[in-house]
Structures are given as C-alpha cells and as structure tokens.
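Single Protein Entry

Contents — chain, fold
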Amino acid sequence: MSILVGYVPTPVGEAAVTAAIEEATLRGQDLLIVNSQREGALADTTVASAEDLDRVMAAARDAGVTATVLRPTHRDDLTESILELAEEHDVSLIVIGLRQRTQVGKFIMGSHAQRILLQAERPVLAVKARSA
C-alpha cells in the first residue's frame, strides 16, 4: 500500500507533503507525490520545478520513505485525476492541502479539496499550512 499526496509548490503544498511523509513513516508505506499540469497551459503556477521535486524527494528519503513522483496532465478536472490515481494505485490514504477561500471564491471557482473530501472512497487527510 502507499499514500498519495497532491503537491503544489506553495506553503499549503509543503504542509501536505510534510504530513504525507509523516504518515508514510508511521505506516511503513511508500509515498506517491502527484504534481499535475493542466493540458495546454502555457503558464501554470502549480507546476513544481525540478528543484522543488528534488527537495521533496530528499525530505522523503531522509525520513526513510520510498517516494515516487507522478506528473500526469489533466484536462478540466484535477479532482477526477487525483481520485483515479488513488484507485489505480490502491492507496490507503490521500493527503491534500487546504487554503482559506471566501464563499464567493468557492462558488465561482469550486473546490478541488472539497470534492476530494466528499467523493474519495478512501480516507483523506486535509492539512492547512502553519500560520507565520
């Protein structure tokens, strides 16, 4: 079994990956780090650089966790991509980061985190970034 974490190079993404490494260590499981780019996007701030991924992989390795990076592309529905990967790899846990959004922001943009929490057929750990 393994743990899947959605990673973006932000404080929320860093908090999620840190929690996922801790869970993988506690459970003695491997870690799947997912960083997905939208198909056709010329600029995407959620795409992790090679340096970001090297740092995250080093943190997992230092904790004694075997980690793999998955870099699938997605069309319109990132949530579906995450849920499909969780099923495909039969993960024991999905770890996601949460960020504060206004009610209007949730209404207009939707919430991938909310949909993952409600639609996942396996446990989900939702993590917030620590306050500065």
The CA atoms of residues 23 and 31 lie 9 Å apart. The longest helix spans residues 11-27. Helices lie at 11-27, 50-62, 78-88, 103-109, 112-119. The chain has five helices and seven strands.
